[in-house]
Amino acid sequence: MKKIEAIIRKSKFAAVKEALHQVDVNFFSYWDVTGLGNEKEAHVYRGVSYSTSDIQRRYLSIVVNDDFEKVTIQAILSAAATGEVGDGKIFVSDIQECYRIRTGEKGGQTLKKQST
């Protein structure tokens, strides 16, 4: 199993979410985050331009079976890219084990949709 963490532009979240659903990645968590990066955002307030180093982004955390790793990453890459500085980053790490709390089962099958 792999944990895929992505930091993307907030404006691209809807497109990334749709791209993930199209490749059958239907469960993930996300947060609004603020970070520092190479991009500098400029804001205009009452005609005065000022710049800030705080950048608003969306952070996604997705756990998938190994066979979904490449399609998940490709879905994010294709939907989140604008070609500009600040598109974001994707991090991949190994997950040793996963448990479904309701049933106590463990392993990769816990990531698959289960009928109720």
Task: Summarize the structure in words.
By secondary structure, this protein is an alpha+beta fold. It has one domain (2-111): Alpha-Beta Plaits. The protein contains 2 helices and 6 strands. The strands form 2 sheets. Strands 2-5-1-6 form a 4-stranded antiparallel β-sheet, with helices on one face. The mean pLDDT is 88.
Question: How would you summarize what this structure contains?
Answer:
By secondary structure, the chain is an alpha+beta fold.
SSE inventory with pairings:
Blueprint: E1 2-9, H1 13-22, E2 29-35, E3 41-45, E4 48-52, E5 55-64, H2 69-80, E6 88-94
Antiparallel strand pairs: 1-5, 1-6, 2-5, 3-4
Strand composition percent: 35-45%
Helix content: 10-25%
Number of strands: 6
Q: Uncertain spans, ≥5 residues at pLDDT below 50?
A: none
Distance between the termini: 24 Å
- CATH-assigned fold name: Alpha-Beta Plaits
Look at the helices and sheets and give the structural class. alpha+beta
Number of domains: 1
The rounded Rg comes to 17 Å
What would you say the CATH architecture is?
2-Layer Sandwich
